[in-house]
Amino acid sequence: MRKLLVLAGENDGLGGTLVSRSMLALGFKQSSVSEQLQILVQSNSFMEQYLRDAGHGFCLQPVEAKDRTQFMQRSFRWVNQQPRDWPLLLDNCVDKQVIPAILKATLALRLSGRPVYHFCHDLCLSHNALGYALRKIAFTCLSPHVLCNSQFTATNVCSLMSDIRGILYQPVDLEQFHQRPSTQPVPEGLKPIVQSGARLMLTPSRINQVGIVNDKNLRALIPVIAQLKAMGHHYHGVVIGPDGSPDLANTRVLLDQAAEAGVGDRFTILPPMNKIEDCYKHADIVVTLAPREPFGRTVVEAIACGVPVIGSRSGGIGEILNHFAPHWTVEPNDPLAVAQAILRVASDPMTSGILAHGRAWVEQRCSVQEYARGVMEVTGITHKVTQPEHPPIHAPYPDPIGERA
Fold first, then answer.
1. Sign of the CA dihedral 253, 256, 258, 264?
2. Closest by alpha carbon to 68, among 144, 7, 16, 5?
3. What is the pLDDT of residues 302-336, one digit of tens each?
4. Which helix (H) or strand (E) holds 240?
5. What confidence tens digit (pLDDT) does each residue in 222-233 have?
6. CB 102 within 8 A of CB 143
7. Pairing of strands 199-204, 235-240
């Protein structure tokens, strides 16, 4: 019996890649092939605890290590001891801390003949010339087969890793994210906003530094709220997500900007919540304006919960919305256009029909079993039984934003 070995480049952060990893384990379990998946985790890491709490202890292979570098080195050593026909899936292993370990492991992997894949969950870019050069050398030498979470991601990574074997949109747990009314009370952080009568404009997002490659562009939300206020509409913007900056510096900058724009009382930032689906179910609209988001998990989660989404027409967000609601896409840095789009969605009698179409698309293309089946087929764990509806994976990928980062 062959197994798929999964080695992740990050063990201590909550984000879309970890959620997708958890959904992959769930998909294997639901497909009755749970014994064919092994995910390497750093012992006592956040990822190990998260996956165990989600009920995925059955597929975990803990690796004792004092830091990420040692974890990668020991993980590759363990992988090399496994049968050579067991494929290895490197899950977004592009950080500068893991590249040296990949370089060191490449020769043994190539000589073993083990099939090696890399799942790109982001654009794999670096503003640092040396950093990009090291990535290029590492992946040229390793020469992995590549999976991407969107055509937008494939557009950016093809110069770094050219052998793109598939586009797999990220999965959403349709049992967790659904349109049925929530039986849970309003989350504590949202209570005063809901009770005030304001319309809730939700943005689940990591609160990151301005100007990085995948800038979440949260500062663009503030002038949108100001525009809505000037137009006589009471929307309250809520950002929910982690802030890894020292002393929450990124959060303070956003709150100061909101106060300066005169909407400090209409803009709130809350820490991550385990049951984000309960927040969706109390939202009037989700707004996500990141211009280079590789996929846009927020979009599919919101649509699954029956919440309309206004999002950037560029990047993975625009790519997803264009499947069922292209007119919900906007220029992310045009606050008037964004505000007008929000108001149109609120008053458009077609919104419920568009949401129904969107939910059907999410159920077809982003289900947990579809995702796991796609990974199994590409990596050869199982034979392909159906022809997916994804675009041809060897076709050239047009750049949705017309430029490379």
1. positive
2. 7
3. 999 999 999 999 999 999 999 999 999 999 999 99
4. strand 235-240
5. 999 999 999 999
6. no
7. parallel
